[in-house]
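Exercise 7. Given the components listed, write out the predicted structure of the assembled complex. Treat all entries as one system.
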Amino acid sequence: MMDAHHLLLQSIIAPLIASPIILALGGRFGRKVGWVALIPLVYSVLCLITAGYVVHESGSPLQASYPWVQLLGDFILLFDGLSGPIAMTIAVVGLLACIYSIAYMDLRDGWGGYFSLYLLFDAGMLGAALSANLAAFFIFIELMLIASWLLIALWGGEDRWRAALKYFLYTKAGALILLAGIGLTYSIVGTLNILELASKAAGLSSSMISLIASLMIVGFLVKMAIFPLHSWLPDAYVQSPAPVTAIFSAGTGIGGYAALRIIYTAFPQMISQRGFMLALLALALITMIYGGYLALAQNNLKRLLAYSSISQMGYMLLGVASASIIGLAGAALIYVAHSLSKAILFMISGMLSRTIGTDNLDELGGLAGRMRAMSIAFMVGFLSLMGYPPLLGFWGELLIFAGSIYSALHPPFDALRLVLTMIAIIFSLITAGYGLWAIRRSLFGEESEAVRRSGPEPRLMLAPIIASAILLAALGIYPTMLTKLLETLALILG
Amino acid sequence: MSLELWAMQAWASWIIPLVGALLTPLLARIGGRARDYGAVAFSFLAMLMTLSLIPLLFEDVSWPLRSQVSWVLLPEAPALSEIKAGIMLDPLSIIMANIVSAVSFLIKVYSLGYMHGDPGLTRYWFFMNFFIANMLLLVLADNLILMLVGWEGVGLCSYALIGYWYQDSRGGWLHYWVGEPPETYPPSHCGMKAFMVTRLGDLFMIAGILILAAAVKTVSFPELIHADSLAPADLRWLLPISLILILGGAVGKSAQLPLMEWLPDAMAGPSSVSALIHAATMVKAGVYLVARLFPIAVSWSASLPATMSFFYTVMWIGALTAFIAASQAIVSTELKKVLAYSTVSQIGYMMMALGAAGLSAEIISGYMASIFHMMNHAVFKAALFLAAGSIIHASGSRFLRDMGGLRKSMPITFYSTLLATLALMGLPPFGGFWSKDLVLSAALSSGEYAVFILGLATAILTAFYSIRMIGLAFYGGKREKAHEAPRIMWAPYLILAALSLALGLIAPMLEGFLEESLSRILPIHAHKVGETHGAQFIIPLASIIAIIVGAAPAYLIYVRRVKSSEEIVERRGYMRVLRTLLVRRYYINAFYYRAIAYPSIRLGCAIQRAFESRVIEGMNEALSIGARRFSDIIRRVHTGLLNHYVIGLILGALILIILILAGGA
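Answer.
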């Protein structure tokens, strides 16, 4: 078998190299340049699926180091039970949303620029998910930020500049706090390799570790749009073009992934810090409920989905705060499920705006009879968000709750955690509430005026939507495809 | 692992309808008939598979038979590290699976006529077969998580089929909507409501399952029997609590108090759906779950006395629901809603029997009573709903006031309904008589006389609303011109109605057989062969008197029409108040809307207005304005005058020099 280590680097490099080429070709090919942009994305998917297969078979993580800026340590890429599913999701959603872009962006110009930035965004996300060096991670996060900021600012909706600036400033502030944490880590622990941090930081005082970890976590909370740092998200999501919003959900979740890494791989001492974990749990709970109630209040589908994303990030943070490997698995599955279902839903929201002219729920109605395939995918997306079996979201939610309950019951018994988790479980009814109500307002009832005038579903937009829905169901029916990778987790857990 | 024959049959019984569901869209491409008959054929095959399991009941098998495959792996996880997909056969699951598959096959046949020509048939057949698959999965699952998958699956089908006529057409109000103003709802609303209410129960159930999983590290039924010894000593107190949380799921699914409000409105779906999902099978899933947990709770109760609270809860929920729902049935103006309240009430009976059984010395007879009543009810209630479909079709309205006089023009429907109604009332020798008798005797032997009295009062109400329904639909002068339903429709309900009589005729044998089989799944120490004590003849007597007390006034008012019910109610103030209370569903429904549903949306909007756009956005504004102010202040320094800059330069240099000097000193 070929040496699989370099696959990881290739999956990031492919879109990175293709990006300037696409920019150059843009002028000549026009819209067709989107098809060229698919080549590196398909390549990334193939690389990562092969890597996943190799890891699955060998039962050990895949790791590749490259000499880099000497000061910062090696440039390390890691594909294990946690980063693997995350990276594969990014690659797949990136590919699907790119196909969708080709159809969706047909009224705009600047093809080359759009797809070139799109590839940069994708490469940034892949790099952030795979790198095990904090400096490299930071650089990829910045790449993501700049690419996505420009995508919103240049191809967004009417209020795009304001939204893009708000997004940029919030994320930048978060990034600076993160950078402070990384800088402290470097100066105190002396390494940026997250796989070495745990052993090297073992001698440090717990207050110092708490300080470093908290700084970084706060940075990630901004990225995840956790309450009260969430206010950039609704505007940024609503103003982004639909395919960018579709991958944006995967990008937002990277904050959660990084939080998992920092707590469970780099500073496992934090797991036993009850106050810290409970604070995260409380933030998670508030975010879940807050985002849910606000989603209930929305009339515009895209804005509803944006608040739903905030709420879902609360779920992911609950997995982070579960202090258990079960919850960690749950958070990873939530990431995958949420990215896929939000990809479906945002692509549908864009498709409705395109074919019907609006995605305001009070102007829709009766779509079930007109757009059957879309309606099924729409329901699949929302049902997975609600945690409904046999879709993947079911396992994500089940496991984050299971993990948190497990931590609550196992010594010492933690009544506060048990109660908070119970509240979280019961309040997850809100997701069903806003989901079903959105379904009812758009799919059921009599056909509205706008709907009656609408055209058919564009096939090129529909195909990636259906593909995501099938993936969501297939992974949900047999989640072992993802969870088996857990045995290769590079982490230390008490 | 070589797969034994029984295992293949059991797996096939739920996989076949699943395949049938998935093939529906493909069959629809061939043609309408291929799709319709194909769907029925798949459910016929499923029935054959479950029927072929029955011989096992007569063999000397050590229950349960289990067949498992690896499913979800969580390596290194301290709990739930491996969740298996497993099938479990024991007398309870075999009996339940057969009720489900046989009733659903007959309803599928009926659907061929009833749904003929509907434009959404592909969707209909898909969800019907998908429902059967999930229901059988629920029944056969050997652990709580796999059961949960089937459990949510049937919930999804229920949602989709209640809202089947999702256009909510106002023109078809008489046909498709449900309820009278101010509580009238379109189908898609009812589907959503059913989903939300049952989901609330399911979330409690999930919480309970996860507590079990964390405390005992297993979720499979056979292993849970010994969970009281598996759990660490300091966590044992959680076990009864987890059982009661799981009960939340059963309460939601089986529409028991306080989560019963969805089922009456679920009548917005097609009658065949009401018959299959909301009478014969899915709503029994809650009873089935309690019956599954029953041996576990009995076994725990020896070491954990607190487990008795589970039985108390089940019994009281059942008894109160039985009575309250029956009282609502006597005022309902819609045919199907009478049946819906009646279903809720009868399921209350089953719950009551299960709870009482756990509290009494003769565990097995109460347990058997519940299962036997479930069987009888599945048969006669399915017959009633299917017949109701024909009646509504003939009279063009779902309201009882638009019916009447159908006895002559629809004789087969009339006699089928009559037979099934008599079984519902519990008249000897119908099946319902025997099982209701057992239910009441279980209540009595638990020693809770209040429960027994509630049960008896329910019997009176049941007789009253049953006769009222027959009288309003079939007697009186109106509508002589209706047509009898086609054979493909009446044959299924005639068969079911006849079956409800046949079950009664063989009841004495059947009871013995059920008791024999079911006793084998209960823990050994539950087998106290209690001799029926002398007072037991009181119960049949009491229940026959209850029937007469309830039926006689209803017969006079609604069949003989001696006096109009309006007259009786209008003349007495307290009757009017009582009627309003019953018509408004004890205001429980209104409570849910006014205290939970609408306030939640309003709360969302309020947060949006008062917090999200004021405080959070205000914070952003403040930050940006602050930043600008700050820059304005700084900007003032940049006056553009050379003198100011030179002064600044000198000042800066001075400060630097002082700092350096200070540092050096």
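Discussion: The first strand of chain B starts at residue 65 and ends at 73. The CA atoms of residues 301 and 307 of chain B lie 5 Å apart.
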